Amino acid sequence: MKLLGLFTCFCTLAVARAVVLEVKAGRETGRIEAAAFTTINDALKAANPGDTIVLFPGVFKERLLVSKDSITLRGSTSSTKPSENEVSIEAAKYASDTISDDDSATLLVTGSNFRAYNLNITNSAAGAEKASVAISSTGTNNAFYVCGIHGTQGVFYAHLGSVFVARSYIQGGTDVAYGRTANAWFQGVRLGATKEGGTLSAQGRQKGGTGYFVFDKAKVVVGKGADAYTKGSVFLGRPWGDYARTVFQYSDLGDVVAGAGWRLYTSSQATKNILFGEYANSNDDGARVSWAKSLSSATSISSILPDYKNWVDSSFIGASSP
Q1: What domains can you pick out in the chain, each with its CATH number?
Q2: What's the predicted TM-score (pTM) here?
Q3: Cα angle for residues 79, 80, 83 (degrees, 5° grid)
Q4: Fewer CB within 10 A of the end CB, N or C, for the chain?
Q5: pLDDT in tens, 57-103
Q6: Cα gap 5→282, rounded to integer Å
Q7: How far, CA to CA in Å, does 316 sit from each of 158, 201, 217?
Q8: Partners of 276 in the beta sheet?
Q9: Phi, psi at residue 83, to the nearest 5°?
């Protein structure tokens, strides 16, 4: 396993017994070995499964595809607060301008056992009712820790496989987190709502298929630049499929969520097979829609991600929102 470093400025980081690859070749930094990369994509091309790419402070204007397994992208900080991240990866692409939602993503992860730490990832395409994905995950056992994830609609696409997101900030207006077949556990995330009447999730499980979202110890807030009347108007989710499953538990809804709690994707949608549930949330006054469920117990992570102990960073299990 080797450690790859990508810099946008000259910085010093003590790394023992690792190969570190830098932007400026020939610059003496006291490391064992140095090489040059001008983009994250170049570093990804050189990386082998099991490698870590360390990104130093700066803004990287590129779209990333991580197709190799067991790659880690790590920002320069080790804070547990996304607001203190110093690395940003930014692009602007609507899904309608590509062949799929995945292809609009600023970060598309098709490999498995991927890890991201302390990164801000943004799709800055805005101003239209179109999906503009910041992160799409289609691999198995992919995890995102202490990330700032920003977009307008369809911001985090838990498309396929299994996903764990912890102590991250996810901001958007409509369907902030969405997906069909992935099982996704959102641990202690802060959800920044920006649209009046917007939706925080859109889970789209189909009959007989997989797919489950759980938000544990989340906190809902009004996001930066939000519509004037966002507070009190936002919905926890809408069913993208007639067998959708989403749970919010132990979460602070911040008086941002509308009393009805949930809304339909289409007005004629069947609801008898939808599981939209809540357990032990706070700041959530209001009468919920008749087809939502008040759960008698919390959902366990092992029921959603059965082998989570083998791949989730244990320091983030049970974490609360930053």
Answers
A1: 1-56 (no CATH), 57-316 (2.160.20.10)
A2: 0.91
A3: 80
A4: N
A5: 889 999 999 999 999 999 989 999 999 999 999 999 988 888 889 99
A6: 42
A7: 19, 22, 12
A8: 246
A9: -65, -15
